TrEMBL record:
The lineage of its organism: Bacteria, Bacillati, Bacillota, Bacilli, Lactobacillales. One of its GO terms (biological process) is negative regulation of DNA-templated transcription. Keywords: DNA-binding, Transcription, Transcription regulation. Gene3D superfamilies: Chorismate lyase-like, Winged helix-like DNA-binding domain superfamily/Winged helix DNA-binding domain. This is Trehalose operon transcriptional repressor. CDD domains: WHTH_GntR. Residues 3-71 form the HTH gntR-type domain. One of its GO terms (molecular function) is DNA-binding transcription factor activity. The keyword Transcription regulation applies. SMART domains: HTH_GNTR, UTRA. InterPro entries: Bact_HTH_transcr_reg (IPR050679), Chorismate_lyase_/UTRA_dom_sf (IPR028978), Tscrpt_reg_HTH_GntR (IPR000524), UTRA (IPR011663), WH-like_DNA-bd_sf (IPR036388), WH_DNA-bd_sf (IPR036390).
Length: 239
């Protein structure tokens, strides 16, 4: 194989990841091995890996190498990868908003096929299924519909859900490494109409998030439905 460019390396590695050449439990070969295989520079290899990270396919862990994120047809639709997510509570504290959370549903359930298709979680695993309304400056502004893998997250309670799930994760050593997101506008559901201050609006903004831990495993699927006249893309994406 002749000397390979950054683009060549990127496309070969991406194809290997998506076709299952590398198991999700594996890590990418170390830089020196890739440099030798592709007869390339360290810069080209690092640039290719950085692009794979932007695609939401891998995550670099200091001292442990490059971890592959779990991927399914559902998760591959999500092309916006974000790090350092702290949650809406942190965002609103920074902006000095009057912020409250109302937990309207909290239960554990087993993932069936329809829920698996919707969330990308495996059939048969236990999840926490939570619905929370975010009340900002007295307005019922955001409805969070959360599913957390109960096998990969610290024990959750309704009280924790009302306070801050992400702060609870941090306190108990769970690191959220990558969050992949999709944003779209949808017709308001009956649940949205019952829980949110929609006024004359008949639609909601829906920010769908899939979160992975630092071993590349999916731990969360969340839909955040927000009223269009109170929040915009920039305000929500900065958290």
């Amino acid at each position: 194989m002749g000397k390979q460019t950054f683009s060549d390396i990127y496309h070969v590695l991406k194809d290997r990841i998506l076709t299952g050449h590398y198991s999700v439990k594996m890590r990418l070969p170390i830089e020196d091995e890739l440099i030798t295989e592709f007869d390339s520079s360290r810069y080209a290899v690092r640039k290719a890996i950085a692009q794979l990270a932007k695609d939401g396919l891998v995550y670099s862990v200091k001292g442990r190498g490059v971890v592959l994120l779990e991927h399914t047809p559902q998760t591959q639709q999500f092309n916006l990868a974000l790090n350092n997510l702290n949650g809406l509570q942190s965002l609103n504290a920074e902006r000095h908003l009057d912020y409250q959370t109302e937990v309207v549903a909290f239960q554990q359930r087993i993932v069936d096929q329809p829920l698996s298709t919707h969330t990308a979680f495996e059939v048969g695993i236990p999840v926490y299924a939570i619905q929370r309304v975010r009340i900002v400056d007295g307005i019922r502004a955001v409805l969070d519909i959360n599913y957390f893998n109960a096998q990969r997250t610290p024990t959750l309670t309704k009280t924790i859900a009302q306070r801050s799930i992400y702060q609870h994760f941090k306190k108990n050593g769970l690191k959220i490494a990558v969050v992949k997101r999709m944003l779209r506008v949808e017709s308001a559901t009956e649940l949205d109409k019952a829980q949110l201050a929609l006024g004359d609006n008949n639609c909601v903004g829906n920010m769908i998030s899939i979160a992975f831990n630092d071993e590349g495993r999916q731990v969360e699927y969340t839909e955040s439905h927000f009223i269009p006249n109170e929040f915009n893309f920039n305000e929500l994406i900065r958290n």
